Amino acid sequence: MPSNDTPSVSEVFTIPNLISLVRLLLIPYLFILLTEQKYGFAAGLISIMAFSDFADGFLARKLGQESNLGEILDPLADRLMILSVVIAYLQIELLPMWLVFMIFMRDLFLLASLPKLISLKKLKVPVEYLGKLATFVLLAAFSLIMLGTVLNNTFVYDFAFAGVIWGGLLYWAAGLNYFKTIRDLKL
User: Fold this and answer.
1) Given CB 3.0 to 4.6 Å as the disulfide criterion, which of 5, 39, 95, 156 pairs with 148?
2) How far apart are CA 38 and CA 140, in angstroms?
3) Is residue 4 a part of any domain in this protein?
């Protein structure tokens, strides 16, 4: 007999979860577009994926379809998209190593807390406003970097580059908040 904790099919296959899943599935395609320098398509896909990050959360709340799976899928898609984009941008020389390292190390830093989360059987941490803001700033800046590259516009690129730095700092601040939250978790 299934336990009461087992989600029903309607709780798993929700519109917001499907949006997050599609975003996850598009990440390898986005990486290929970027590394093969198909910048026009990549710019459009980054923008669509960034918008879908907003849409899945909005729809989950609006439709009453918030779920445990969604609370894992959405941030997972965010992290993997951010890491894929910065690695691709490093490879095609749109971002310097130090900036990619800064963003990459934040997620590696948080990954160190995974054993504690597993031991507490808590694979999700409450989302913080600062974390959502950092993700928004990074995704918007990534879109603008592509736009500046496609248009060959150094002003747009430089503005976007500053946005990645700002987003990276916000990303670290949010990461430190998450780390403190995880550190303080109890059974």
Assistant:
1) 156
2) 19
3) no
Overall pTM surpassing 0.70 (yes/no): yes
Q: Residue 157: give the domain boundaries.
A: 9-183
Going by C-beta distance under 8 Å and a sequence separation of 6 or more, which residues neighbour residue 31? 84, 85, 87, 88
Q: What is the pLDDT of residues 16-51, one digit of tens each?
A: 999 999 999 999 999 999 999 999 999 999 999 999
- 73-100 confidence digits (pLDDT tens): 888 899 999 999 999 999 999 999 999 9
Query: What CATH number has the domain bearing residue 115?
Result: 1.20.120.1760
| C-alpha to C-alpha distance for 163 and 143, rounded to whole angstroms | 11
Flag whether 2 is in a domain: no
